[in-house]
Specification:
mainly alpha, two-stranded antiparallel sheet, 4% strand, Scaffold/adaptor protein
Length: 226
C-alpha cells in the first residue's frame, strides 16, 4: 500500500536530480553511438563537426551497412547478400543462421512474386539441405513452404511471412551481424540506458512514491498519487 511507502515530493525529487553531475562528453558519446548504430550518417557527420567527437567507426561503413539493410527491406535479398560479402565475406561464412534467414527471405520473395516453380526448386536445392543439418531450420522452411499450399498466400496461417515485418526482422538481423563484425554494439547504448531507467523505477516503486517518468519519449515527471 502507498501509505507504507516513503513519499518523495516533486521539490525534493527535483533537488536530488539537480545535484547529479552529467558529463557533457559522456552525453555526446551516447548521442554519437545512437547515430552510428541506427545508421544516421548525415546526423553523425554533422554532430562530429559540432562537437569534435570522432565516431567509433568509419562513417563510410555506415553507408554500406544501410545499403544492405535497405536492399533487404526492398526485397532485393540477393543484392543484399552480395553487398554483405563485399563488406566482409566472413559474416555469412561464420553465421549459418543468418545466411539461412536471408535465403529464407529470398524464398519468401519468390512466393510473393508468384514464381511457384522457381520457389519450389530454390527451396529444394538451397534450403532443404540446410534444413537436414539443423532441425530448427527445417521447421522454418516447412512453415515458409506452407505459403505455397494456398492460392492466396496472404490468407494462409503463416501469411505474416509476406508482410513488411518479416523483411524488417531479417534486415535487423543482418544489421546486427554487420555491427558485431565491426566490434560494435548491436543495439544503441541509449536503448540499454532507457531499459535501466524502467528497471530502476520498477524497483523504486516497491519502496517509495515519487514523481515518475511514465512516458520515456517525453521524459516528463508526473506527480505521485498519494
Amino acid at each position: 500500500m502507498a501509505s507504507s511507502k516513503k513519499v518523495i515530493t516533486r521539490d525534493e525529487w527535483e533537488k536530488r536530480l539537480n545535484v547529479v553531475n552529467i558529463n557533457t562528453e559522456d552525453m555526446n558519446k551516447l548521442v554519437m553511438n545512437y547515430f552510428v548504430t541506427e545508421g544516421f550518417v548525415e546526423a553523425a557527420d554533422k554532430f562530429r563537426s559540432e562537437t569534435g567527437l570522432e565516431p567509433e567507426i568509419d562513417l563510410s561503413s555506415i553507408t554500406d551497412r544501410m545499403a544492405v539493410k535497405k536492399a533487404v527491406q526492398a526485397g532485393n535479398v540477393q543484392d543484399a547478400i552480395e553487398k554483405v560479402n563485399d563488406l566482409n565475406p566472413e559474416i555469412l561464412d561464420t553465421n549459418p543462421q543468418l545466411f539461412f534467414h536471408l535465403q529464407q527471405q529470398r524464398l519468401i520473395e519468390l512466393i510473393r512474386n508468384g514464381k511457384v516453380e522457381e520457389a519450389l526448386e530454390f527451396a529444394q536445392e538451397e534450403l532443404a539441405p540446410r534444413g537436414e543439418e539443423h532441425k530448427n531450420f527445417l521447421e522454418e522452411l516447412e512453415k515458409t513452404v506452407l505459403l505455397l499450399a494456398f492460392e492466396d498466400a496472404t490468407k494462409s496461417p503463416v501469411g505474416e511471412l509476406l508482410g513488411m515485418s518479416q523483411r524488417l526482422k531479417t534486415a535487423s538481423e543482418v544489421n546486427a551481424a554487420i555491427l558485431t563484425s565491426q566490434s560494435h554494439e548491436k543495439d544503441p547504448k541509449l536503448s540499454s540506458l532507457l531499459k535501466m531507467v524502467i528497471l530502476a523505477q520498477n524497483k523504486l516503486d516497491e519502496k517509495a512514491v515519487y514523481p515518475r517518468i511514465n512516458n520515456l519519449s517525453t521524459a516528463v515527471l508526473e506527480d505521485p498519487i498519494v
